[in-house]
Write a structure and sequence with these properties.
alpha/beta, 211 residues, 7 strands
Length: 211
Amino acid sequence: MTPRTALERGLEQLALALPAGAREQLLQYLALLDKWNRVYNLTAIRDPLGMVSYHLLDSLAVLPHLPFAERARVADAGSGAGLPGIPLAMAKPQWQVALIEANQKKSAFLRQARIELALPNLELHEGRVEAWQPAERFALVISRAFTRLADFVATCRHLVVPHGVLAAMKGKHPQAELAELPADVDCKAVIAVEVPYLRAERHLVLCELRT
């Protein structure tokens, strides 16, 4: 199976309707990631076919569970190679998506990706998440970079608007981690997410700040 076929079938399984040109953009991003990965080791997944499931479809599978306004401001904290932020920006061109990444090599890749993929709704902040004070905060901060929920909340809560949402992409159900969260954080939903071609548990944890 080719990456193109895997992406097409995966999107069908997810029942996702993407904007015109988004599928080609996703494949261009995949090719760029594969090219840079050979030199800079941006991701442990080396095979483009594996990147379709572990990166593209894994990022897009959360979309149906993010019921935000058409022009939402979204941040991807600890974006790495642009995941899930770049696929989300392609799928939702009306969103303004900020990628936050401290690693210089990964940030260089993100800058190049923004240029080559022509994504005007994408911005990059190079630096540590906890140190950034954006001029305008976000309705949603999403990440798959943090090992523990408590670290994610503590590091990123200053980025969201009052009653904004922190969305953590996790593997197994984080039952023990939920008990570690402060009282003003309401993790109102832990959603099991099915990712095509990925034989691993995936959960999306949606946490709202009460204050």
